[in-house]
């Protein structure tokens, strides 16, 4: 009888343990994978990206998605691989390195690019959209040039893309928007370095169409 009771207790403990096993935690990064089809970047331009502001609700490890007009949901098992500020900073720096390394003129005329990013919105809704709104200020400095003689450019940026279902689809949407931000920054800086007063590119809608709320 005691043996039967013991086996029952063991079986019950095993079943409880299985039932209490938590779902696996998945980690995501905004850093793009290396494109091995392209030659290595040859830029000598030092790129310093600083994220000076993100919404306070983003300063946590878990991903957050909008689930209704007034609701957001914190995803306990879907997490950033590093703090959001670092994810944005590293991803944008790599995207800029790839682009500037394949340009002639800008990387040789200047020694350092300092970029300050102010993120106003970084949000998504599952299977619908990903939205990035930010302003940026870029300072291009020549070698040995004092900061008060550097060229400063300030612009705003917005990208709104439809995303595939799944949490990875949301992060991939953010990656595309950061790549688009890098494109916009390089386009403006290259034009102004050549003496062309190019306007800031303010809004980009993904080729598949965006569906973010219009009150942002």
Number of helices: 4
What is the string of SSEs from the N terminus onward? HEEEEHHEEEHE
Class by alpha and beta content: alpha/beta
Return Rg in Å: 23 Å
The CATH architecture comes to 3-Layer(aba) Sandwich
- Report the span from N to C terminus: 69 Å
Structure description:
The protein is α/β, with parallel strands linked by helices. It has a single domain, classed as ABC-type transport auxiliary lipoprotein component (Rossmann fold, 3-Layer(aba) Sandwich). It has helices at 2-19, 84-100, 106-109, 167-193, and strands spanning 26-28, 46-53, 62-68, 71-80, 112-125, 129-141, 151-162, 203-205. The chain starts with a helix and ends in an 11-residue tail after the last strand.
Which terms would index this structure?
elongated; 3-stranded mixed β-sheet; 5-stranded mixed β-sheet; alpha/beta; 31% helix; 8 strands; disordered C terminus; 4 helices; 216 residues; Rossmann fold
């Amino acid at each position: 009888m005691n043996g039967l009771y013991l086996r029952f207790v063991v079986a019950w403990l095993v079943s409880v343990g299985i039932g209490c096993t938590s779902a696996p935690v998945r980690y995501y990064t905004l850093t793009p994978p290396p494109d091995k089809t392209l030659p290595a970047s040859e830029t000598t331009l030092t790129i310093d990206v600083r994220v000076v502001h993100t919404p306070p609700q983003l300063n946590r490890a878990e991903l957050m998605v909008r689930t209704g007009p007034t609701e957001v949901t914190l995803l306990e098992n879907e997490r950033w691989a590093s703090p959001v500020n670092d994810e944005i900073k590293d991803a944008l720096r790599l995207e800029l390195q790839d682009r500037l390394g394949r340009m002639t003129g800008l990387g040789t005329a200047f020694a350092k690019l300092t970029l300050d990013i102010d993120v106003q919105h970084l949000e998504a809704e599952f299977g619908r959209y990903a939205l990035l709104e930010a302003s940026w200020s870029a300072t291009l400095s020549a070698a040995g040039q004092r900061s008060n003689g550097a060229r400063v450019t300030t612009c705003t940026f917005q990208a709104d893309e439809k995303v595939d279902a799944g949490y990875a689809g949301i992060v991939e949407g953010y990656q595309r928007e950061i790549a688009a931000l890098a494109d916009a920054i390089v386009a403006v800086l290259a034009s102004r370095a050549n003496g062309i007063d190019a306007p800031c590119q303010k809004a980009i809608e993904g080729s598949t169409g965006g569906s973010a709320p219009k009150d942002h």
